[in-house]
Design a protein that fits this description.
The complex is a heterodimer of chains A (about 400) and B (about 240).
Chain A (H helix, E strand, L loop, with lengths): L1 H15 L1 H38 L4 E6 L16 E2 H10 L3 E16 L2 E10 L2 H5 L4 E4 L4 H5 L4 E4 L1 H8 L8 E4 L2 E9 L13 E5 H9 L4 E2 L2 E4 L1 E6 L5 H15 L10 E5 H44 L1 H9 L4 H36 L9 H27 L3 H6 L2
Parallel strand pairs in A: 4-9, 6-8
Antiparallel strand pairs in A: 1-12, 1-13, 2-11, 3-4, 3-7, 3-12, 5-8, 6-9, 7-8, 10-11
Chain B lengths: L1 E12 L2 E13 L4 E5 L6 H8 L7 E6 L2 E2 L5 H10 L1 E4 L11 H10 L5 H14 L15 H13 L5 E5 L7 H18 L2 E6 L2 H4 L4 E6 L2 E7 L16
Parallel strand pairs in B: 3-8, 3-9, 6-7, 7-8
Antiparallel strand pairs in B: 1-2, 1-4, 4-5, 9-10
Helix pairs in contact in B: 3-4, 3-5, 4-5, 5-6
Classes of the chains: A alpha+beta (about 400), B alpha/beta (about 240).
Bound molecules: adenosine-5'-diphosphate (ADP) and magnesium ion (MG).
Adenosine-5'-diphosphate (ADP) binds next to β1, β2 and α1 of chain B.
Chain lengths: ~400, ~240
């Protein structure tokens, strides 16, 4: 009886001041919607980053030239390089690897008939496709034989295909890279790329063809053919560390480094990168959620404020209720039901709005927001607790009014 | 039923002390209809708020049905107000957003009854004051006299031992006021209801069987009235 009576009283009191109640609820709606939407966006970012790294092969070790630290003062900063010879040394010495893929990357203007585009041209070997988990959607991949016979052939990413050919079939067509003719022999299956650079905007050519016909002197340093990076795919997740130390050993030997010299190359471990990045994005998500939670707190203060006003406006009503036999708890409960009604309506509406924002952001292709059940449960619980927490004080004030004084007020 | 001894109530307002009640003693038996009469500011409302358990005395003792009220805890006082006392105010004090029926249900809802029992008792009380057919109306759709009847029904809903009315006719014209006094007389005569009527008007006081006069917080006389006026008797000197 009392609960339904209280609910009815609460709704009546809230409806009597519709605008006021609506504005109070709005405070909670904004807070909850912000929590749900921001957590969804954060989760979406996390999963798209981890998916992307996972899709580029998680047993992958990426070797690049350069020291991980600047040389100590007084020592010369000498440019370091990875060379084709380093690659050959790795091929002969490494065990427990599934593939070794050197790459030389440079940007060129590419034309087909009247259309042209500037894109990244990468000289690769046959291993490149398996190591970087690329597949071919039409035509064929490049092989080591293409390099050996210095064929002028190319495999294109889908963005490049669209830029140069529109809807035309590119297979067998001849394109010009820096005025050298190449025949398109294959198209890559598009990869998910939600980062800044489009992984589908690329042209792959045989590495040796590149050295001889395209890259020219740029690729030569100190009389050696250089590579931009060498990707090594370990045979399994368990051998990643072993392979990594083998690479270090081989490259230090190749580069004639003394015992106390720092490495002049960096080995990037994809699994490590993955865990680092996902911990960064998780922190970011938590941070966004916390900021949103602050606005929820502000909404709670709004509830408290309006309930205090309501208590002082209804002092006489409270006095009367006490006069006809309401205990302190009854009054306390009545006002808590009122604040909880505000916060629950706000919470449910906020969850709806937050999901709508997440849906809208996804529909606009900005980011794939992932609404998690836990963020809904969390923000709902939080808004209920806020109604309770910020309702307690005004309700307590109401409950402790002296019946006679309350009746005499006005 | 009521036993009040050496009751003192002092209000302190900053430096000032106001002795609203100064050594008041009297008792009222079950089934009596008594009026407390005195000029404005003489302490009538203060006395009734203590008798109605809305306030506690500064000193003195108050036995209600032989139970010492001044020793009670807050929640026990609330229960006494709920079960034993029905209070009628000069300004009605109805909740404006709820119907007459829900106003009468209010005290019942705090006594742990089922929704159905609440409704039945409330309807019975409204029937007693002659407003059953108006029970869905809100206070602003009722006349002053009808509003006071709803307030009386609310006071009667829980079958209280004691009905206290503080200036119940003060906000009403004399004809409507007579109707209210008639209702109190009926409750007293037909149901043996114990009634205390507070008034500053000696004509109203004449309607009860006993008159206690209060001046400056002290009882100056306490006398039986052998022939109470019947409600509806014209006020002496009033033009008709
Ligand atoms: N809560 C209070 N605080 C201070 N003074 C009060 C309070 N209640 C009543 N009084 C004072 O006590 C005296 C008696 O008041 P009251 O009982 O209301 O008289 P009555 O009902 O006979 O007009 C008055 O002087 C009044 O100002
Ligand atoms: Mg008074």
């Amino acid at each position: 009886m009392l609960l339904s009576q209280n609910l009815r009283t609460a709704f009546r009191a809230l409806l009597a001041n519709k605008l006021r109640s609506a504005l109070t609820i709005l405070g909670i709606v904004i807070g909850v919607a912000a929590v749900v939407a921001l957590m969804a966006i954060g989760n979406g970012a996390t999963s798209s980053i981890t998916n992307r790294i996972a899709s580029s092969g998680s047993n992958l070790l990426n070797i690049q030239a350069g020291r991980s630290q600047r040389p100590s003062p007084g020592q010369p900063f000498n440019q370091t390089n990875l060379t084709y010879k380093d690659y050959k040394a790795l091929v002969t010495t490494l065990t427990d690897v599934a593939g070794i893929a050197p790459a030389y990357q440079s940007n060129y203007t590419v034309t087909y008939n009247t259309l042209s585009t500037s894109t990244s041209v990468v000289g690769v070997t046959g291993d490149y496709f398996s190591v970087h988990t690329y597949t071919i959607s039409s035509g064929r991949a490049l092989t080591d034989a293409d390099g050996a016979s210095q064929k002028q052939v190319a495999v294109l990413g889908t963005t490049t295909v669209t830029d140069l050919f529109g809807t035309e079939d590119p297979l067998g067509k001849s394109i010009k890279i820096n005025d050298k003719s190449f025949t398109v022999i294959g198209v890559l299956t598009p990869k998910d790329s939600s980062g800044f650079n489009d992984t589908n905007d690329t042209i792959l050519i045989p590495l040796e063809t590149g050295y001889n016909k395209l890259f020219g002197a740029n690729a030569i340093r100190n009389g050696e053919r250089t590579v931009s990076a060498i990707a090594v795919s370990a045979s399994s997740a368990d051998t990643v560390d072993l392979v990594s130390s083998q690479i270090t050993f081989v490259l230090r030997h190749q580069h004639h480094l003394a015992l106390d010299d720092d490495d002049d190359f960096r080995i990037q471990n994809q699994a490590e990168l993955l865990s680092t990045l996902s911990s960064v994005t998780t922190t970011m998500t938590t941070f966004l959620g916390a900021i949103a939670a602050i606005s929820l707190l502000v909404g709670g203060i709004g509830i408290m404020n309006i309930t205090l006003v309501s208590v002082s406006e209804r002092t006489r009503e409270i006095g009367l209720r006490k006069a006809v036999g309401a205990r302190k708890n009854h009054i306390l409960f009545q006002f808590l039901v009122e604040t909880m009604t505000l916060s629950i309506i706000g919470g449910v509406t906020g969850i709806g709005v937050g999901m709508a924002i997440a849906w809208g952001v996804t529909a606009l292709n900005l980011i794939t927001a992932v609404v998690s059940v836990s963020s809904i449960a969390l923000s709902f619980t939080f808004s209920v607790l806020i109604g309770l927490f910020f309702g307690i004080y005004p309700a307590y004030r109401a409950a402790n009014l002296h019946p006679m004084e309350a009746l005499r007020s006005e | 039923m009521i036993q009040i001894d050496h009751l003192v109530k002092i209000f302190t307002m900053g430096e000032n002390e106001i002795r609203a009640l100064d050594d008041v003693s009297f008792s009222i038996a079950k089934g009596e209809m008594v009026s407390i009469m005195g000029p404005s500011g003489s302490g009538k409302s203060t006395l009734m708020s203590i008798a109605g358990c809305l306030d506690v005395p500064t000193s003195g003792s108050y036995l209600l049905d032989d139970i010492p009220v001044e020793k009670m805890k807050d929640s026990q006082l609330a229960d006494v107000r709920n079960r034993k006392i029905g209070f009628v105010f000069q300004q009605f004090n109805l909740l404006s957003r709820t119907s007459a029926l829900e106003n009468v249900i209010l005290p019942l809802s705090y006594s742990g009854l089922s929704a159905r029992a609440c409704r039945e008792k409330a309807e019975k009380a409204l029937e007693l004051v002659g407003l059953k057919e108006r029970m869905k109306h809100h206070p602003n759709e009722l006349s002053g006299g009808q509003q006071q009847r709803v307030a009386i029904a609310r006071a009667l809903a829980n079958d209280p031992a004691l009905l206290i009315a503080d200036e119940p006719t003060g906000a009403l014209d004399s004809k409507t006021g007579a109707g209210i006094m008639d209702l109190f007389q009926t409750l007293h005569r037909d149901f043996g209801q114990t009634v205390i009527v507070v008034t500053h008007d000696s004509f109203v006081a004449q309607h009860t069987g006993r008159i206690i006069r209060l001046v400056d917080g002290r009882i100056v006389s306490d006398a039986l009235n052998a022939n109470p006026l019947k409600a509806g008797t014209p006020r002496p000197g009033a033009e008709d």
